[in-house]
Each structure stands twice: as structure tokens, then as C-alpha cells.
Specification:
By secondary structure, this protein is α/β, with parallel strands linked by helices. It has two domains: about 150 residues, Alpha-Beta Complex (Aspartate Aminotransferase, domain 1); about 270 residues, Type I PLP-dependent aspartate aminotransferase-like (Major domain) (Aspartate Aminotransferase, domain 2, 3-Layer(aba) Sandwich). Helix content is about 40%, strand content about 20%. The chain has 15 helices and 17 strands. It has a seven-stranded mixed beta sheet, sandwiched between helices. Strand 2 and strand 3 form a beta hairpin. Bound molecules: 4'-deoxy-4'-aminopyridoxal-5'-phosphate (PMP).
Length: about 450
């Protein structure tokens, strides 16, 4: 009997014993194509020699130094590299161990920034429905995923939630994409005015919604309008690129495609590519300076901030992306993946939408393509497809989002950047089997 506390106590999962390129191998020798990189993590596959070497060398040289006493070479080098590529005035990097730690830190930094500037009344956070920012209490409160929140609602800080930018379901007939984006972006302004403009500290959003909706980018112009509104009212813009960042969308930072720069940017998954747990929060020079010239101390922290082995892994990952021009490869392979998915599933009566950017793609499953009605959540369709896919040797990330309180089933694909054209076909073949098996059971 296993003594590991699994995510799903009723499921019997295979034991992973090895990784080879885009494949995971279980204890019986069965190979699984990692079509979602776990949860958009394994962007370099499972056996990247350069990253493995960097981790081995760092652990031998220096395994740990607490950032309360010392900085380290890999943390400094990775911060320099990230800032040299980061948009806008992002200027400082705060290294943590994962996505939730990055978004928690962002919320606290936003609050402290306003305090340092003598605006203690700024305490409201605004985020979006159908979003996910992590599972710790602050991050969970920011997220608008009703299913993940429901048991913990009484414990969560109050956060306002406005509409997401979810064109497939919410754009009205006859409304252009651009007008739709402006309309939903303007909900931010309405909410700021409702709360009182000088009481709002920040707005948080994912440039491409991942774990709740399955790769939904905003329409053109949406984030530019959001940026404008934040600037008008002195509200900080926090972009959560934990899932969609680090090359995943065909841009090193997802917001590059939207032409906006945030005040705070959160990254994680692809930064360590699974070789080490690492996340980061990047902030603008204005935020850093407010603290440096004020109390001089960010009232936050964890034991493993800036971990030398994790930052060495991150440094090797980003260097690999740059040296091998993998971000351009993502754009090219992403176009091929979208075309292959369209060819295979665009006419499927239960596939309502195929979307995304780069190698971050989502399929939305619907009962009826005209009404876009989702399946009854009692069927657990996405979970059935995940199980059937595993059986067929494919890892894909299933999710049940909420749509006006109703559940909808989505499949997220986020394969390693190194995948080949033949492997795109392998994903489609195995996914087709899994979708049919999932549907057959309901
Ligand atoms: N933000 C986003 C956008 C995410 O997708 C996730 C994880 N799916 C998180 C935050 C939380 O990251 P972690 O699980 O590493 O804490």
C-alpha cells in the first residue's frame, strides 16, 4: 500500500520511473507522451542534458545559502538574464519555489508598495472570474475558479471579480472582437469606481487563461485598455504568467503578444521546466524604489527564496531556450499543432472551440455546438478523457471550468517545445481515442 497522499485518493496512478525526451516511462515500461508537460511545466522534455548537468554541478558546488545572509551566483545571473529580456520597467526579481508563492508575494508587494507611498487606504484587489492564481489562501482568494474555492470560501480575503475575456462564450452576436474586449475591460473601470478609486491596490489577470478555461487568450486591445485603466487610477497591474509564460505562447513573456508591460509579473512552471521547483515575481523599478527608499524591507519571505540549485536550473533552462531559439520553434510548432487539431477535431460535434497561442492549446467540449451548452458536470467528462488518454499513452490536462456557475469541460495541451511533427500527429491520434472513449461512457 502506498503511503503517499495522492491528489485523488480514489484513483490508482502509474508510478513514473523515468523520462526520455517528450515521454514519461512507468514502472511497467509503458511510455506516455507528455502532451501537457504535466501542467505546462516540462517545456524542455524530461532528459535535457544541459539542465541536468547544471543542477548536478550546482548541488556539488553549493546546495543552499539562506537569502537572509547571502545571495548566490546562479540567482544573480538568472535575475540579470530575466531582466535583460523582460518588458517595460521590470527591474528586480524575487525568486520563490512555485506559482502560488509568486502570486502571494505579488499581492503582498502591491499592498506594501501603496503603504510605502503613504496610501494605506489602498487594499482592494480586483481579479477575474474563471481564473486561477494558485492554491494558497491569498492566491486562491484572487482566483475565480468556483470549484477550487468552494470549500474554503469562509477563509478567503475579499477580492472583487470581474468578467474574464472569454470570447467564445461571452461575445454577443454582431459585436466585434475588439468591441467585446473593450466592453469587458471596462468592467475594471466600473469596479474601481464602485470600490472607490483610491482604495484599489491592484488588478491581477492571466494573459492566457490556463488551468480554469484551457488556453484562452484575450482579444486584441483588451490588455491595452486594462493597462490604460490601471494607469488612470494608480492601480498596479499584476500579470500571472505562471502557466503561460516562459516561451509557452511563442513569446518569452506572454504579455509581449498583447503589447503591454505589467508592474508585477509572476512566472514559474516553465522557468524550472520541472528540473527544480522555482517561481519568480518580477517588479518594476518604481515598486522596488518605493520600498528601497522607504522601510527598505519587503515584509515577506520563505526559507527557500533564491535557492541556488533551483536558480541554477532556471538559468540553464532560459539559456537553452535562447541558445536553441526554442521560442521561435514554439511559434512554428504551435501553428502546426493548431492546424492538426483543427483538421482532426474542427468538425467534431462535441468540440466547440480549439484555441490558444504557441504550444498552449485548449479544446472546449460541448454537448451542442450551436448552443455551446456544456455537458452535465456529473458526467465528469474531462476526467474520463484524462483516464482514457493515460490508457492510450498520452498525458493531457483535463479541467472543468465554470461558466456562469455551470461547469464546462476543457482539455489543455502544453507539450514540450522539442516535439516533432510526427509527435503532433501522435497527440492527435491518442487524443481522438481518448475523446471517443470519454464520450462513449456518457
Ligand atoms: N497561477 C497560474 C496561472 C497557474 O496556472 C498556477 C498553477 N496551475 C498557479 C498560479 C499556481 O502555481 P503552483 O501550482 O506552482 O503553486
Amino acid at each position: 500500500m502506498s503511503h503517499v497522499f495522492p491528489r485523488h485518493t480514489k484513483s490508482d496512478l502509474p508510478t513514473a520511473v523515468g523520462g526520455d525526451g517528450c515521454y514519461l516511462i512507468d514502472a511497467n515500461g509503458k511510455r506516455y507522451f507528455d502532451g501537457s508537460g504535466g501542467a505546462a511545466v516540462s517545456c524542455l522534455g524530461h532528459s535535457d542534458a544541459a539542465v541536468i548537468k547544471a543542477v548536478q554541478e550546482q548541488v556539488e558546488k553549493l546546495a543552499f545559502a539562506h537569502t537572509g545572509f547571502m545571495t548566490s551566483e546562479p540567482a544573480e545571473a538568472l535575475a540579470d538574464l530575466l531582466i535583460s529580456k523582460a518588458p517595460g520597467t521590470l527591474d528586480r526579481v524575487y525568486f520563490v519555489s512555485g506559482g502560488s508563492e509568486a502570486t502571494e508575494a505579488a499581492i503582498k508587494l502591491a499592498r506594501q508598495y501603496h503603504l510605502e507611498r503613504g496610501e494605506p487606504q489602498r487594499r482592494h484587489l480586483i481579479a477575474r472570474r474563471q481564473s486561477y492564481h494558485g492554491n494558497t489562501l491569498g492566491a486562491l482568494a484572487a482566483g475565480g475558479n468556483a470549484w477550487r474555492r468552494q470549500q474554503f470560501d469562509p477563509l478567503l480575503i475579499g477580492v472583487s471579480h470581474i468578467a474574464p475575456c472569454y470570447e467564445y462564450v461571452d461575445r454577443s452576436d454582431g459585436e466585434s472582437s475588439f468591441d467585446y474586449g473593450q466592453r469587458v475591460a471596462n468592467e475594471l473601470e466600473a469596479e474601481i469606481l464602485r470600490l472607490g478609486p483610491d482604495t484599489v491596490m491592484a488588478f491581477m489577470a492571466e494573459p492566457v487563461v490556463g488551468a480554469t478555461l484551457g488556453a484562452v487568450p484575450a482579444v486584441e486591445g483588451y490588455f491595452k485598455r486594462i493597462r490604460e485603466i490601471c494607469d488612470t487610477y494608480g492601480v498596479l497591474l499584476i500579470l500571472d504568467e505562471v502557466m503561460c509564460g516562459m516561451g509557452r505562447t511563442g513569446h518569452l513573456f506572454a504579455c509581449d503578444a498583447d503589447g503591454v508591460a505589467p508592474d508585477i509579473l509572476c512566472i514559474a512552471k516553465g522557468l524550472g521546466a520541472g528540473y527544480q521547483p522555482i517561481g519568480a515575481m518580477l517588479c518594476s523599478s518604481a515598486i522596488y524604489d518605493a520600498i528601497a527608499q522607504g522601510t527598505g524591507f519587503f515584509q515577506h519571505g520563505h526559507t527557500y527564496l533564491g535557492h541556488p540549485v533551483a536558480t541554477a536550473a532556471g538559468l540553464a533552462v532560459v539559456n537553452q531556450m535562447l541558445e536553441r531559439d526554442l521560442v521561435s520553434r514554439v511559434a512554428e510548432k504551435g501553428t502546426q499543432l493548431q492546424a492538426a487539431l483543427m483538421e482532426r477535431f474542427a468538425q467534431h460535434p462535441n468540440v466547440g472551440d480549439i484555441r490558444g497561442r504557441g504550444l498552449f492549446r485548449g479544446l472546449e467540449l460541448v454537448q451542442d455546438r450551436d448552443s455551446k451548452a456544456p455537458f452535465d458536470p456529473a458526467h465528469g467528462l474531462a476526467a474520463r478523457i484524462k483516464r482514457a488518454a493515460l490508457e492510450a499513452g498520452l498525458i493531457c490536462y483535463p479541467m472543468s471550468g465554470t461558466r456562469d456557475g455551470r461547469m464546462g469541460d476543457h482539455i489543455l495541451l502544453a507539450p514540450p517545445f522539442i516535439l516533432s511533427e510526427t509527435q503532433i500527429e501522435e497527440i492527435c491520434d491518442k487524443l481522438a481515442i481518448a475523446i471517443e472513449e470519454g464520450l462513449a461512457a456518457i
